[in-house]
Amino acid sequence: MIAEAGHYALVLALALALIQSTVPMIGAQLRDPVLMNVARSTALAQLLFVGLSFLALVALNVMSDFSVANVYENSHSMKPLIYKITGVWGNHEGSMLLWVSILALFGGLVAMFGSNLPLSLRANALGVQGWVSTAFYLFILLTSNPFLRLANPPLEGRDLNPVLQDPGLAIHPPMLYLGYVGFSISFSFAIAALIEGRIDAAWARWVRPWTLMAWTFLTLGIAMGSYWAYYELGWGGWWVWDPVENASLMPWLAGTALLHSAVVMEKRNALKVWTVLLAILTFSLSLLGTFLVRSGVLTSVHAFATDPTRGVFILLILCVFIGGSLSLYAWRASSLKQGGLFAPISREGALVLNNLLLTTACATVFIGTLYPLALEVLTGERISVGAPFFNLTFAPLFVPLLLALPFGPLLAWKRGDLAGASQRLYAAGIVALVSVAVLWAWTRGGSAFAPLAIGLAVFVIVGALTDIAERSMVFRMPLSISLRRARGLPRASWGTMFAHVGVGVALIGIVCETTWNTELISTLKPGDVAKVAGYELKLDDISQRQGPNFGEMLAHFTVSEGGKVIGAMAPSKRSFSTRAMSTTEAALMSRGVSQLYISLGDTAASGAIAVRIYHKPMVLLIWYGPLLMAFGGLLSLSDRRLRVGAPKPAKASRGLQPAE
Fold it and tell me: How far does Cα 300 stand from its chain's mean position?
C-alpha cells in the first residue's frame, strides 16, 4: 500500500500544481484577491503531498520492498541503512522525485515567507512555478514512475551502483538540486515581472535573496561533487571538464553574474532588462543540465543514460520553457523602462565588467560542451572537446576578472575614483609582488606563470580584506573604535569579503596542485618502500575482509618522514558480487592543507600490487575556497536587509498591494 499511496500523493500534487498554475494567474489578470491567494494554499498543499510521496519511496527502500521495480533495481537487503536512504536519489526515478520535491519546497517557502510581496507578483510567480512543477510531474508519472510494481517480486535486489555507495552521495545531489531548482524562483519572478510589465529596485530586492540561496547551495554542491570524484574514483583528479560537470558549472557562472547584476538593479535601479534576461538564462541552463544528465546523450559516471522517450520529453520541456520565456522576454523587454545612468569607472561599471566576463566564460563552456553533441547529430562525426580547449579559453577570461575583483567594492556608485581605489590597494599589490618574488626564488620546476597566478590570488585575498579595513578605518582610528565599526558593518559586506577571499584561496589550491603535484606509479610487494616528495611509504601487508554487501582487499601502508613514522594509510579495492563491479577506495592523509593520496590497481600473480601514489600540495584549498564562498553567501543571506522576503514597501499601488 505504501507504493500506491506514494503514487496517489504524486497524482494529487500534479492536480494541485495544475490549479496553482492557472487559478492565481487568472486572478492576477482579474485583480481578484481571492483567486490570487489560491497560489499560497495550493503551493503549501503541493509541498505536503510531494513530501509524502518522497517519504513513501524512502520507506520502500528502507524496508527493501523488492516488489517495487525502482527498489529492486537500486537496492539490496544487506546494503547499509545510510545507502538505502541515499540510494533513493542515486537513480533516475528517485532523483527526479527529489527534484520536484525541492521545486515544491521553494514554492512553499515563497508562499510562507512572501506575505510582503505584492499580491499579483506572488500569484504570477507561484503560477509560473506551478507550470514548471506540472511539466516535471507529468514527466515522472508518464516516463519515470518510481512506484511501479513488479508482477513477480524477486527475493533480492540488484544493489545500488557501487560507485554511488558513498557518504558523499548523501550531500552532493541534494545540495546540487537545491542550487539547480532554487534558480527556478528567480526565473518565476522574472516571468511574473514580464507578465506585469513592471520591474524595479524592489523586484531586485525580492529576487536577490532567493538567487543568493540557490547560488550558495550550488557552490556547495559543485565543491562536494568535485571532492567526491577526487577520493571515490581513485584517479587523483578533481575536475576533468566532463560535460556533466560543465552542466553544473554553467548555471553557477550565470547565477554569479545574476547576483552581481541584481545588486546594481537594487542599488541604482539600473540593468533591469539584463537582470531579467540573466534570471531566465540561469534557470534555462539548469534545465539544460537536467536534459544532458537524463536524456542519455552523455555517458558519464554522473549521468543516468536512459531510454530516448525520456530525453524527448525533457527536450520538449526545454523548448516550452526556454523558448516560451525568451519569446515573452523579446515581446515585453522593449516596454520596460531603463534605469539610471552611470560612468564607466564606477561600482556599477565594475559589476558590468564582472557580468561581461562571467557570461563570456559561460558561453565558452556552453559551446565546448554542446558543440560535439551538435556535430554528431548533424554529421555523425564524433569529436572530443577536452581540458586543453577549456584551459586555453576559459582561464584567460578569469585573469581580468580577478584583477578587477578588489577594485569593485572600493569604487563609489555612479562615478568612482580609479586612482583613489588604486591607492587603497597599494598594500595588496605589494604583498602580491612579494609573494611572486618569494615563489620564483624558492620553487623549482613547473610553469613560470604559476607564481604570477598565486600572486594574483594573493592580490584578490588582500584586496578583499582591504575593503573591510577601509570601512573599519583600521590604522586610522583607535583599535577599539575600528573593532566597533567592523562589528557594525552589514553582514552582506562581510559575506562579500568571505566570498572574494574564497575565490583567491581556491585559485592558490588549483595552481599549487596542478603545478607541483608529484605522482608515482609502481608495483609493490609487502615490505617494499615507495618514496614520494620526501615521504616513505612502506607496504606492510595485504589483507581481505568482508563488508555488508561487498568483499574488500586492503593494503596497509606505514608512512614516514625523515625516518619518523607519521601515520598509516589503508587504500582498498571493493568487489560487489551482486553488480559484478569493483570500486577503488583511495586512502588520504592530510598534512596541513596538502595530502598524500594512494589508490590501488590490479594484483599480479606474484602477489605484487600496482599502486598510484600522489603528493598534492595545498590541494585542500581547492575545496576550502568554495566553503568560504558558501559561508559568505549564508552570511549575506542572514543580513536583515537580505533575508528571504523583501521589506514591505511604504506605499503600495492598487495593482501591487501586499499579499495576505
Answer: 18
**β strands within 508-655, DSSP E:** 518-524, 529-532, 535-546, 551-561, 564-569, 572-576, 581-585, 587-591, 594-603, 609-616
Nearest Cα neighbor of 241 from 375, 389, 30 is 389
Distance CA 428, CA 462 (A): 5
With 90 as the cut, is the pLDDT of residue 56 above it?
yes
**8 A C-beta contact, residue 197 and residue 656:** no
For 258-303, give the DSSP string.
HHHHHHHHHHHS--HHHHHHHHHHHHHHHHHHHHHHHSSS---SS-
**C-alpha distances in Å from residue 297, one per residue of 81, 294, 371, 473:** 33, 8, 13, 56
* Model confidence at 499: pLDDT above 90: yes
Q: How far apart are CA 38 and CA 16, in angstroms?
A: 10
Determine contact, residues 119/660, Cβ cutoff 8 Å: yes
Closest CA to 120 of 45, 16, 20, 26: 26
Q: What is the DSSP letter of 473?
A: T
Distance CA 595, CA 553 (A): 23
Residue 419 buriedness (CB in 10 A; 0-12 / 13-18 / 19+): exposed
Residue 650 has pLDDT above 70, yes or no: no
Residue 271 predicted with pLDDT over 90: no
**φ/ψ (deg, to 5) at 569:** -135, 145
CA distance 219 to 593: 20
What is the number of H-type helices and E-type strands within the chain?
Answer: 21, 10
- Output 576 or 334, whichever has higher pLDDT: 576
* Cβ contact 330:208 at 8 Å: no
Across-strand partners of 530? 537
CA separation for the pair 281, 359 (Å, rounded): 10
How far are the Cα atoms of 17, 191, 285 from residue 134, in angstroms, in the given order? 6, 16, 19
Give the C-alpha separation, 469 to 451, whole Å. 26
Query: How far apart are the C-alpha atoms of 550 and 589, rounded to whole Å?
Result: 24
443: number of Cβ within 10 Å: 15
State residue 296's pLDDT score.
57
- The amino acid that residue 213 corresponds to is M
Q: Please state the φ and ψ torsions of residue 406, each to the nearest 5 degrees.
A: -70, -20
Q: Which of 39, 45, 53, 211 is nearest to 130 (CA)?
A: 39
Give CA–CA dist 275/273, Å, rounded.
Answer: 6
CA 59, CA 85: separation in Å to the nearest integer? Answer: 8
Of 385, 390, 343, the residue nearest 363 (C-alpha): 390
| Residue located via cell numbers 569593485 | 408
CA distance 361 to 359: 5
Give which of 195, 191, 193 is closest to 323, Cα–Cα. 191
To the nearest 10°, the Cα dihedral for 397, 401, 403, 407?
160
Question: Average pLDDT of the chain?
Answer: 89
Q: What is the pLDDT of residues 1-20, one digit of tens each?
A: 899 999 999 999 999 999 99
Dist CA 621 CA 594 (whole Å): 8
What single letter denotes the amino acid at residue 308? Answer: P
In sequence order, what are the residues at sequence separation of 6 or more whose Cβ sits closer than 8 angstroms to the Cβ of residue 402? 456, 457, 459, 460, 503, 504, 507
C-alpha cell read off for 141:
508519472
Q: Looking at this protein, which amino acid is placed at residue 268?
A: R
The three-state secondary structure class of 576 is strand
d(CA 205, CA 263): 8
Residues 6 or more apart whose CB falls under 8 angstroms from that of 190 comprise 207, 276, 279, 280, 325
The cell 508519472 sits on which residue? 141
